[in-house]
Specification:
Number of domains: 1
Distance between the termini: 45 Å
Helix content: 25-40%
Radius of gyration: 12 Å
Largest sheet: 2 strands, antiparallel
Number of helices: 2
Shape: elongated
Strand content: 15-25%
Strand order of the largest sheet: 1-2
Order of helices and strands: EEEEHH
Bound molecules: zinc ion
Length: 56
C-alpha cells in the first residue's frame, strides 16, 4: 500500500499518515517539516510572509 504524498513545503515524498495538513489550506506538509516548526505549505508561507511584511 502506497500512501506517499509530496510535501508542499520541502517537496519530498513522505508518508501521508505521518504528515500534517497545512494550517492555511489543508494540503500535505510532512512530519519532518512539522518538527522544524513549519505548519504552512510553501504557497501559504509565501503569502504569510508577504502579508506580514511592512508596506506590503
Ligand atoms: Zn516537508
Ligand atoms: Zn497551504
Amino acid at each position: 500500500m502506497n500512501d506517499a504524498m509530496q510535501c508542499r513545503s520541502c517537496g519530498r515524498e513522505e508518508r501521508a499518515s505521518e504528515g500534517y495538513p497545512c494550517t492555511g489550506c489543508g494540503t500535505f506538509v510532512c512530519q519532518v517539516c512539522n518538527i522544524r516548526g513549519i505548519v504552512l505549505c510553501s504557497a501559504c508561507q509565501a503569502k504569510a510572509e508577504s502579508t506580514s511584511a511592512p508596506g506590503a
